[in-house]
Amino acid sequence: MTGSPSATRPEGEGTPGDRSVAVSTEEQRRAKLERLRESGVDPYPHSFEDRDHVEEIEAAHDPAELGEGEHEQFTYRVMGRITGKRGHGKTAFLDVRDITGTIQVYARRDVLGEEAFARVEELDIGDLVGVVGPLHVTKRGQLAIGVRECFLLAKALKDPPDLFHGISDPDTRYRQRELDLMANADSREIFKKRSRLTLAIRNHMAERGWVELETPVLQRLTGGAAARPFVTHHNALDRDLFLRTATELYLKRAIVGGFEDVYEFGKFFRNEGMSPQHNPEFTMLEMFVGGADYEGVMRFIEVLVASVVEQVMGTTVVERDGVEIDFAAPWPRVRLRDELLREIGLDIYEASRDELAEAAGDAVGPDDDWAGVVDTLQGKFVEPKLIQPTYIIDLPIDIWPLVKVHEESDRVCEAFDGIVAGMEIVGGGTDLNDPIEQRVRFIKQRERQEKGAEPDPHPNDEEFVRALEYGMPPASGCGLGIDRLLMIMTGAKTLRDVIIYPAMRELPGE
Fold first, then answer.
1. 141 and 200 inside one domain
2. 336-358: per-residue pLDDT in tens?
3. Model-wide pTM > 0.70
4. What is the total count of domains within the chain?
5. Under a CB-based contact definition with an 8 Å cutoff, are residues 291 and 179 in contact?
């Protein structure tokens, strides 16, 4: 599509985000909407196809080589939101931003005609438009579009947030993420990185022959994680179901069926507290490596994470709180026994529950057993000091009922937590495949739950034990928290910055 020839440059260029034209009130915007409809113009048309992105336009042209003026051989269709508007008599200037960038467009009365130019002048900051016209190089050496056609694609009835300086109020950013994305380039970039991260992980797995499975989100029993589930009710079946806390048991049953290296990306739900590191709905990669013990899955994860971080960030090194964190493999392994012996002077293989509880102080509750106290000590004395990616290995067996016992002590198992910046981002271990021992461990887990050492008791998963009775090959698995990983990669202070619509408490009157 080509427009009318013109070599005249714009009369004024302004600054991106300039609101030199008065902002319309909501009442004025609605009045403009009605005038458009009365004149036969649809303010919400169905399409604007075959559009060009600002980033692509900028990549295709060097203003210095083109030279100042209009270049009719290059005509583009751009769709975006008006972020700035300036008027200079017979010429109107708009800053139009799409997902990739912002470009100036200018409309001239003598080119568009009185009626079309008047409609351009009626546009407000925040309106979505589609513009068609030739490329132009301004006197400042910037690329612009000379308008030959301008279509209103969506009339904004509310005044947008400050599209130049952004939104600083966190409550508004989280509750009305659409305004945050509209106003804050940093927020848009975080969610672009999130998309690239999940794609990079899937590509990494696919290139190595892994199979992605989809297991039930609504589960008959809750299992695979020591967490309180959300409960819902299936009307047709007249039974309660649980939103999944993990996919582990289903993925292992698939391994019994003949799969080897399997994974699942998905949403998980835990009906527990909220904090900067906890959201009741979160995204996790759960995976199982056929034939490997926990060392095998640790090797796989450290390579996977280093690779995808480098693909998304351009380097394995990211900065958080002024400290450089390097995800490059291999990651150090530290034994929990050794770390606590150094920190509190007690050997967890030998010390009693009460001796360890005294070292933990007020962080321990009366219902916490030996395993719960050791887990508390890990969180209090070990994890906060691990800034660089590190595996804590050989963890309390009672907290990991699906993992094989460690040969050194029956108090611990071949489990690990991967810690970065003081936060756990991954946990896993060597999978227990002995059905007889698994049934015993389930019974013991239920006893711990009934004593208050774990969340609400739930029935043993006999379907899973029955599957193990058919024989499951050696395997190891883990769950990688995508939200926390992205939080560290981007320097975000809270999961709410990396979850596009996080859970929020209701405001008064809602």
1. no
2. 999 999 999 999 999 999 999 99
3. yes
4. 2
5. no
